[in-house]
Structure formats: C-alpha cells, structure tokens
Amino acid sequence: MTDRQFGLPDSGRPAEELLAELRALTAADLPTRGGRTTAYTYDAGRPGVRAAAEGAYLAMLEVNGLDPTAFPSIVALERQVVGAVAARLGGDERTPGIFTSGGTESILLAVKAARDARPEVAEPEIVVPATAHAAFFKAGAYLKVKVVAVPVDPETFRAVPEAMAAACTDRTVLVVASAPSYAHGVVDPVAAIAAAAAGRGLPCHVDACVGGWLLPWLAEAGAQVPPFDLSVPGVTSLSCDLHKFGYAPKGASVLLFRDQALRLAAYFACAQWPGYPVVNSTVQSSKGAGPLAGAWATLQALGADGYRELGRAALDATRRLVAGVGAIDGLRVLGTPDATLVAIGTDGEDPPDLWELADESRGRGFFLQPQLSVAGLPASLHVTLTGVSGEGVDGLLAVLRDSVAAVRARGPVAPPAELLALLGQLDFTTLDDAAFAALLPAAGLDLSPGAGTRMAGVNRLLDGLPPQLRDRLATRFLSALYSPYLDAPGA
Length: 491
Ligand SMILES: Cc1ncc(COP(=O)(O)O)c(C=O)c1O
Hints:
The chain is of the alpha/beta class and 491 residues long. Among the domains are: 55-299, Type I PLP-dependent aspartate aminotransferase-like (Major domain) (Aspartate Aminotransferase, domain 2), CATH 3.40.640; 417-481, no CATH class. Helices cover 41% and strands 12% of the residues. The chain is built from 16 helices and 13 strands. The chain has helices spanning 15-26, 47-59, 72-88, 103-116, 134-143, 161-166, 190-199, 215-220, 260-266, 290-326, 354-363, 393-410, 417-425, 433-439, 456-464, 467-481, and strands at residues 97-100, 125-129, 146-150, 172-178, 204-207, 235-241, 253-257, 268-270, 278-280, 331-333, 341-346, 369-371, 380-384. The strands form three sheets. A seven-stranded mixed β-sheet has the order 1-7-6-5-4-2-3, sandwiched between helices. A four-stranded antiparallel β-sheet has the order 10-11-13-12, with helices on one face. β8 (268-270) and β9 form a beta hairpin. The longest helix is centred in the middle third of the chain and has 37 residues, at 290-326. The two termini are 13 Å apart. The site of pyridoxal-5'-phosphate (PLP) has 12 residues, from α4.
C-alpha cells in the first residue's frame, strides 16, 4: 500500500496494521522529538508529560466543542486554561479569552474583533510591523482588511513606534506589535506602540503567539525581557500559543482580551437558518476537544516549575548558539534575540550560499528553516531553541562550521536569471498541475524517491522573485503536491 493507492478498502483493516502503516509513513518526516528539527516542533523531552497530554487528548476525542451547553466539560477546561494564561500575562481571573486552534486562528479572531468593533469604518486597515507574522496578511485577505506593513529598524529588526504611529489613519482599526517576531526573535517596543495607539483611541494587539509562554520564564531565568503583556497600558488583546512553548499537542492557542466588548466582537452567531442556532467563539464550529484537553493536561503536568526549567535550558542553549555562530567566519546572528529564536544570516567577504547551507545542514541531521529576504531585510536561516535543544548545540555548531566549509568549497552559485525571467512571464492561472510539476526539475527540485530533499534551487528561485510572484508559485506548488503528478517529498 502506498500513498498513491486511493479509495476505501473493501473490508476494514486491523488497527495494528494501520498503525504500522503510519509508522512507515512518518519515518520519512523530520523528527518531532530531540531538538534537531529547529522549527515546527516543540519537545518538552518528558515522557510523563507526553503521556498525560496523550491520555487527556484521547479521553476527550469524541467530545464536540460545538455546543458548550451539551458538553460543559469544555467550558470548565477552557476557563482553567485561559485563566492560567491570563494570570501569567498581566490579566486576572476576569480576563476574557478564547481557546483557539492555533496562532493563525487567534490572530484572525483578534483582527475580526477589531474590525467588527468599528462597523463605521468602511475600508478598515491594520498597521503592522513589516516583521509581523504572515497570519496578519491572511487575516487581511480573509476579512477584507488592508494590511499596512511599516518598515522596521534595519539593524535591530524591531518595529519603530513613531513610524507605526505615522501610518495610522481614520481607517485604522488595529495596531500590532510582536513579542517576539518569529523571524528574528526580537520583541517590539510594545509599551511605546500601545501608548501611541491608545493616544489615537486605537486598540493594540500583541502577537505573543510564539513568545507568550516563553518570555515570562526567560525573565525569571534572568533574561532582559521588555514589558509586552496585558499589564502594559494600551494593549487590548494578546495571542499566546500553547502548542509552541506551552509544549502542548498541536491545536492550542489562547487569545486574551482586555475587555468583554472586544471578545464579544470576535464571536459569531447565526439563527437565520432552519437548523440549530449557531454560536461560536472560534472559526471552527464542530471541533474536537482533544487539543483543549491536551493543552490543559500539559499545563498541569509541567506546572510553573517545569516551564521554568525548560525556559532556563532554552535560554542557556540560545546563548551558546549565538556566541558560537558569531565565531563562525561568514555567519552572523541577525539582531539581538530577546527570546530563544535565532536568525542566522551571512556576512564577510566570502558569504556562503544560505540555501546550500540549509541543504547541507539538513543532510548532516539539522533542519534549519529558510527565511527569504523581504522588505529590505536580509535572508536567513531560522533556529527555534526549546528546552531540549541544549544537548544538540555543540553538534549544531559543528554542522554549521562543516557545512559552511563544504558550501564554500563548491564555489558561488549564480541566481537562475533565465528561469526568473521566464517565471515572471508565466501565467500561473492557465498552467495546470501536470505542466507545473513538469517544470520543477528545471527549478532544481527533485522530489523523486531517493533524491533526498534538496531545496536550495527552489529557495534561491523564490528569493529572487517579488513576493506576489512567490505567493503564486507557492500555491501552484501546493496544488501540484496534492495532485498525482508529484511524489510526496521523501517518499
Ligand atoms: C509570532 C507568531 N505569530 C503567529 C504564528 C502562527 O501560528 P500558527 O502556526 O500556530 O498558526 C506564529 C507561528 O510560528 C508565530 O511565531
């Protein structure tokens, strides 16, 4: 049975066989434990915590979050989870919140709330730093809200409060700051941005999706953490993902609001159809309660002490990585990270090709996530360090040193000028999945079995294209990937 086989089996298959098939399929995935996949996954490294989350998830597997009056257990759990997050992030037991499926959903709802709280604004806009997460652009696209991206300081990668304030107009419904930004791990000057927003009567959302459940523990471990939470005057909402540094199973984020009116504007209700009256706090209607139970159990199983220890370990690992990268000729850390997220860029006379470096490191066991250049900010490779990263830091630094040497030895790689020009002229709307898939080898992407996952050609190509063309190319790629014309990567 391969992933190419389709359809339903004539008779049901035994569970052991299915689990064996899943094990075989996931063998080609990046590892989710052990800290060598330096993005996407957050491993607490504690089997007991994992077991508690798994048990709780399964215990609530069939419970439907659609109707909190039918399943009061979800109200009890959500109150506890939201309460725990609020208490740590400048709120209290009365702070209104929503448990959502992730950072993107929290951000969508924060933008919806801000938009719907100002129905008189015909063409609403949100003002975000250029380093804000893509989820704000998604919210803008989904909710028909214009996103005004304001350049950040090119040295520190932090938002510039005066520039943010200057970008606000009568149409602005929300101002955004990140704590920290994903790409560079730096915390924006939240207090100044929120004060400037409040001075104009505007709400301010803090995107603490990645940092909300990390920064408080780093501060306790002695790191300098600027104020960023609901205790900061002018901050009106804040998102904090538990499926990141909360170490909870995926599908867990909390959106906090300073007041009930704003949370009410995030809700949706519809009784204008003949079925059950719908009232939702989230984008999803029917939804499993597993992620909520998993997040609750993870918080309870780790406790403040557990998070404190994981925070201290991640901070120590980050300091060692930052110092080590600074000592590698040709590499530098972009900015000064406030959290345990590090962007590795290049410098010097003979900078190594970043995209080759990513492939080279992956081949040597460490996945470093490529981050394209945009808005005048240089390209980089992303590393998120968690509580289990410490053991791997020396190995990662050795891999980086060896990879830089190997990439340099192969010599510089020229940007694919002809291909870039060709792609600029292609009409992606008329190209179908089969034709697009046939083009990929020319772009240097070989997904055939055994080819290994070399992405340098594609990353170099994307980096050379204007962002809108990148987006069209990426969605075309996704469409081809889910069609029968491409092998699944690593298959
Ligand atoms: C700062 C920030 N905001 C939002 C998100 C989006 O979160 P998700 O992938 O859970 O939707 C992320 C994800 O990394 C993030 O780092």
